[in-house]
Specification:
The complex is a heterotrimer of chains A (291), B (261) and C (229).
Chain A lengths: L1 E11 L8 E9 L3 E5 L6 H8 L2 H4 L4 E8 L2 E2 L5 H4 L3 E4 L14 H11 L4 H15 L14 H13 L5 E5 L7 H16 L3 E5 L3 H7 L2 E6 L2 E6 L1 H5 L2 H5 L6 H11 L12 H10 L12
Parallel strand pairs in A: 3-8, 3-9, 6-7, 7-8
Antiparallel strand pairs in A: 1-2, 1-4, 4-5, 9-10
Helix pairs in contact in A: 4-5, 4-6, 5-6, 6-7
Chain B lengths: L1 H6 L8 H4 L2 H17 L5 H16 L3 H26 L17 H27 L2 H10 L4 H30 L8 H6 L1 H24 L19 H24 L1
Helix pairs in contact in B: 3-4, 3-6, 3-11, 4-6, 5-6, 7-8, 8-10
Chain C lengths: L1 H7 L2 H23 L9 H10 L1 H18 L8 H16 L6 H27 L8 H9 L4 H30 L2 H4 L15 H28 L1
Helix pairs in contact in C: 2-3, 2-4, 3-4, 3-5, 3-8, 4-5, 5-6, 6-8, 6-10, 7-8, 8-10
Classes of the chains: A alpha/beta (291), B mainly alpha (261), C mainly alpha (229).
């Protein structure tokens, strides 16, 4: 059953003339993990804002088509009601700190205070969410004293406590160092395992391939490709259209050209590449060049 | 960075004063200030400082912090006001001495002293309040009593943003200094260096506004539901009693002023 | 009316206010570091007044002074009504279309200065007896020595000090607005306040200079009348 349903969505920001999103049709089923990829300016963030209700409620501008989540229509709802359906987290962890609270625990309770959750339930929900994202030990720290990866996990948790039906994540690791990236993806992996409906914008395709049920490639405000990670992420169209692709895919494609890759399916992750090259009878690459 | 310490005045202790309801302590502050303005005796501020604020700082186990802040922050301000007024306030009366056009009188010195003490009382009792009350506790309590949640947001957010901004300003000033900014140079040069100092600071912080607005909207900031609070702030019967007593004292001092003048 | 005021306080406004207060204080302190003879401690207040309306500006001003008073200089505390009116008046000026070009901004700055002078006079007179902890009280003291009444002395002092400061403040706020993208400004409650009027920059600058000269002459004339009377 589709929990997110976008039909013919076209959107133009105020004071601009050309639409950022054009005729987007997108269905996401409950429990599905969908990843969106695309070059800069493709409209990824705008798509996130649209699903999360900030387009048009916060950004104004002109939206046509319908945006439905859990059978409610965005244009007929208020933003403060809509955010209970769809949770949004984005790139910069620092800007997601409310600034109104002194400790991580208070920061996580901020949203629940706003929507009037009783105190006892509030504490339980915050503690549960902290356990899920592995930040229980940060409860009494100041949100400003944390590392980027920790701050981003706090930002994710602050949305999770609101118990949204759909989670929209807009490049949550783009400002993270490798350690922060791993921390954040650790959380995302758990959410995927728990069956949360997640829409993730991300350019680190090797990570996407591990979680996503479906990948959507966006370009110039339109959907270019759509399918399983294997289909989309290894499609030759991506490379031609200026998308970032996995280095394992490009290596395997080169190897395919000279007969060293025997699989039909090109790899996206290191593991898939290793597996595929292991199928090649000889000469064995002996694992040289792997890190 | 010294600012950071000053903005988070709060000193965590376990004391009767810390346990009082924030509104009670706020009433205490405003009560003291109003009494010092209303009561028609020149010694009221001194009395309130010596027998009110200072003993309370010991009760609150923050005497050391209190005296520290008073000496560093309040005394210079009150002292400066005293000197300005004592010298320049042209009150008729017994002339003390004369230098040029300055001729302070006994009356102007008395007037200046009372004013400075009033300022001292006002600020030092507020300092005591901030030393013993955590800002989020105060805001939770006031929100529960009907202060719009947005006000609480603005106050706490300012307290947290300000030190960050000042740190940024310091960084920019030192960066410009290393590029040749000289605070001793000519007026025009200094005025010209204002824009490169202010520009990055202002635009950097304004850019963050949009994302932070989105982030708190995503967490129900504009929700129309009645807000709840994570912290439970106790409000005992003795709290209420103290508030009533203070209100009564304020009224009495006002009555005295009207009656005696 | 109450509903209109409510509209001015959207989430962008609530998030901008703390930033604006921090801008006030940070610029105010930079100016002290540079030893410039102005305060420039209301740039953020004017900015909020212009982008979010008079009442948001007024709130910013009042809170700014209160927090300044508590955290930095206790002597700033009693002056919060002045900051309140600075925000209020700059908001109303912008609403009336007086924040759309350089020369209009100069006029706004001047009107804000008059407001500040008018609002600070009663505080200085009734709370401090005329002499405050500000350096400009030297002028007041001097004027009182020449036999001027306390009210006139205080007001003339403010009248001498405020215009330069508030016109610079308004121009700085205008420069900031000019540097922001239209798309960003569109999120605030009153983007129409700063819609571009067009017109060549150079011409505008000449008009601005002309207006400053006129205002100075006007101020001098007023001052002479006050002092004479």
């Amino acid at each position: 059953m589709a929990i997110v349903n976008l039909q013919n969505v076209t959107y133009t920001y105020p004071l601009t003339h050309s639409p950022v999103l054009q005729n987007i049709n997108l269905r996401v089923n409950e429990g599905q993990f969908v990843s969106i990829i695309g070059p800069n300016g493709a409209g990824k963030s705008t798509l996130c804002y649209t699903i999360a209700g900030f387009v048009p409620h916060f950004f104004k501008g002109e939206l046509t088509g319908t945006v439905e989540v859990a059978d409610n229509e965005s244009s007929k709802s208020n933003l403060h009601e809509w955010v209970l359906n769809v949770g949004l987290a984005f790139q910069n962890p620092f800007n997601q700190i409310s600034g109104a609270k002194y400790t991580v625990f208070e920061e996580l309770a901020f949203g629940l205070e706003n929507i009037g959750v009783p105190r006892d339930e509030m504490k339980v929900r915050v503690e549960d969410a902290m356990k899920l994202t592995g930040i229980s030990d940060l409860a009494d720290r100041s949100p400003y004293s944390l590392s980027g990866g920790q701050q981003q996990r706090v930002a994710l948790t602050s949305i999770l406590v609101m118990q949204p039906k759909v989670l929209v994540l807009d490049e949550p690791t783009s400002q993270m160092d490798p350690i922060g990236t791993r921390e954040v993806f650790g959380v995302i992996r758990k959410l995927a395992e728990q069956g949360m409906t997640v829409i993730l914008v991300e350019h680190k395709v090797e990570w996407i391939a591990q979680f996503a049920d479906r990948v959507i490639a966006l370009k110039d405000g339109q959907i270019l490709l759509e399918g399983t990670p294997g289909e989309v992420l290894t499609s030759p169209i991506l490379e031609q259209s200026g998308f970032g692709i996995s280095r394992y895919t490009s290596v395997a494609r080169k190897a395919q050209g000279i007969g060293l890759w025997k699989n039909d399916q090109l790899p996206v992750t290191l593991d898939e590449a290793v597996e595929g090259f292991a199928l090649t009878p000889s000469p064995s690459p002996r694992g040289r060049g792997e890190q | 960075m010294a600012m950071h310490e000053r903005l988070s005045f709060y000193a965590k202790r376990d004391s009767i004063l810390h346990r009082l309801n924030p509104l009670t302590k706020l009433t205490l502050v405003f009560g003291f200030v109003l009494i010092s303005f209303f009561a028609p005796f020149y010694w009221t501020p001194h009395l309130l400082i010596l027998s009110g604020v200072i003993p309370l700082s010991f009760t609150g186990k923050v005497a050391r912090e209190y005296f520290n802040a008073s000496l560093r922050l309040i005394l210079p301000a009150a002292g400066f006001l005293f000197i300005m007024q004592a010298l320049f306030q042209p009150l008729e009366g017994e002339e003390l001495f004369r230098i040029g056009f300055l001729h302070p009188t006994k009356e102007s010195v008395m007037f200046a002293f009372a004013n400075a003490m009033r300022i001292f009382l006002m600020v030092s009792s507020f300092t005591l309040f901030l030393l013993t009350t955590h800002p989020s506790e105060l805001m939770s309590d006031l929100t529960r009593r009907g202060l719009p949640g947005q006000f609480a947001y603005v106050i706490i957010s300012t307290i947290q943003i300000l030190p960050q901004m000042q740190a940024k300003a310091q960084t920019i000033i030192s960066a410009q200094r290393s590029r040749g900014l000289d605070t001793q140079s000519s007026f025009l040069k200094r005025a010209g260096s204002l824009i490169p100092l202010v520009g990055p600071l202002v635009f950097g912080s304004l850019v963050e506004v949009e994302e932070r607005a989105i982030a708190i909207e995503a967490r129900g900031f504009t929700s129309t539901k009645t807000k709840t609070s994570l912290h439970e702030i106790p409000d005992t019967n003795s709290d209420k009693m103290i508030r009533w007593i203070l209100a009564a004292l304020v009224l009495i001092s006002l009555a005295l002023r009207l009656w005696l003048s | 009316m109450l509903n209109n005021i409510k509209k001015d306080f959207n989430t962008m406004t609530w998030v901008l206010i703390p930033v604006a207060i921090a801008i006030n204080i940070a610029i105010g302190q930079i100016v002290v570091t540079l030893k410039l003879p102005v305060f420039l401690d209301s740039v953020g207040t004017v900015l909020v007044g212009v982008l979010c309306g008079p009442w948001a500006g007024a709130l910013t001003g009042a809170l700014s002074n209160t927090i300044w008073g508590i955290a930095i200089d206790p002597n700033a505390l009693p002056w919060w009504p002045v900051a309140f009116f600075i925000g209020l008046v700059s908001g109303f000026m912008a609403k009336g279309g007086w924040f759309k070009s350089w020369w209009k901004v100069v006029v706004t700055g001047f009107v804000v200065a008059l407001t500040a002078a008018a609002a600070s006079t009663p505080i200085a007179v009734y709370l401090f007896g005329g002499i405050t902890a500000s350096g400009s009280s030297f002028i007041t003291a001097y004027l009182m020595q020449t036999g001027l009444g306390v009210f006139q002395a205080v007001f003339s002092t403010s009248f001498l000090v405020e215009p330069v400061d508030k016109i610079t403040t308004a121009m700085l706020a205008f420069a900031i607005v000019q540097g922001l993208s239209r798309r960003f400004i569109a999120r605030f409650p009153r983007p129409e306040n700063v819609e571009d009027e067009g017109g060549a920059n150079q011409t505008q600058l000449y008009i601005a200079i002309g207006v400053v000269v006129l205002l100075v002459l006007f101020a001098a004339f007023m001052l002479r009348n006050i002092l004479g009377g």
